[in-house]
Structure formats: structure tokens, C-alpha cells
Amino acid sequence: MKKYIIISLLLCGLLHAEELSTACYRDNDKNVVICSEKKLGRLMWQDEKQSFQGTWEQAQEYCKIVNLAGYRDWRLPTETELLSITERSNPTLNTIFKYIADSPWYWSSNYNANSSSAIIMRFWDGISGWENVSRRFYVRCVRQD
Q1: Is residue 109 part of a domain?
Q2: The domain spanning residue 138 has which CATH number?
Q3: Among candidates 86, 135, 131, which has minimal Cα distance to 110?
Q4: CB neighbours (10 Å) of residue 16?
């Protein structure tokens, strides 16, 4: 059953990603990537060598305390925002990003209270799915620029 859910989410994600056209550039001095997309606007993404791994709640708290590029209003990205920085290659994370964790599952802010789960995305192949919020995954914080 879980395989069917993941496959369904992947197909929906690919269809949705088709609609997103994102242009990105990297600011090496600040360790951020800035992307513009018509529907999402301008987003600034964390892209540092050191990465944080934790539960979904820890991931939210981590983003709240990040002080990067002179900004303190970082948050977990939505699934759609994560899809906006993926490409159809391996790894699927836009090549403008320098850093990707060895185990590339990343938390999104999408949460389902009924199942205590949140959406995670894997940047090696663009797969996303629901996982229990007590599991530990990586974080890539974002902010509206």
C-alpha cells in the first residue's frame, strides 16, 4: 500500500513540477540560492555545507533560529516549494545548489495531524511521501525574499 501511495505522490509531483518554471542563482558569499517562480514568487534557500537532521518538530525549531544572510525569518518549505527546485535528473535538486546531504530525505511543512506525519522529499530522484514526524530527516530552510 505504501508503494502505491509513494508512486501516486510521485506522479502528482511530476505533473505539478511541470507547471513550475524556476530561475535560480547562487550567492556564494551568503551560502544561499535565490529562486524566482511565477506562482511562488522569490524564495531564498539555505545552502550551507553543514546540515541539520532532526524530527519534524526539531526541523521547524531549527529553521526558526537560523540566522543566515542577515535574515532570521526562515521556515520549513512546503512540498510545492521543494518541487520548485527539482529538475528531471539525478540528483533532482537544481544544480545551482552546492550541498546535498548523503541521505537526501528532506522535511516539508506539509503536516497531517490525523496520522502524525509530514511530507518528505528525496532529492536524488524527486520522490516524496508521508513519514511519521518522529523520524529524523534533513532540513533545507527557506524564506520569502
Answers
A1: yes
A2: 3.10.100.10
A3: 131
A4: 13
- For residue 40, what are the domain limits? 23-144
Q: Give yes or no for residue 63 having a pLDDT over 80.
A: yes
Contact between 66 and 141 (Cβ < 8 Å): yes
Which pLDDT score is estimated for 103? Answer: 67
Cβ pair 54, 136 in contact under 8 A:
yes
The whole-angstrom separation of Cα 95 and Cα 143 is 20
pLDDT band at 19 (very low <50, low <70, confident <90, very high): low
In angstroms, the CA 84 to CA 121 distance is 12
Query: Would 60 be classed as within a structural domain?
Result: yes
pTM, 2 dp = 0.79
Most confidently predicted of 20-24, 53-57, 92-96, 112-116: 53-57
Distance between CA atoms of 94 and 23, rounded to whole angstroms? 10
Residues 6+ apart with CB under 8 A from 120: 105, 106, 107, 108, 128, 129, 130, 131, 137
Number of domains in the chain: 1
Please indicate, yes or no, if residue 3 is contained in any of the structural domains. no
Strand order, beta sheet including 32-37: 22-27, 32-37, 41-46, 142-144
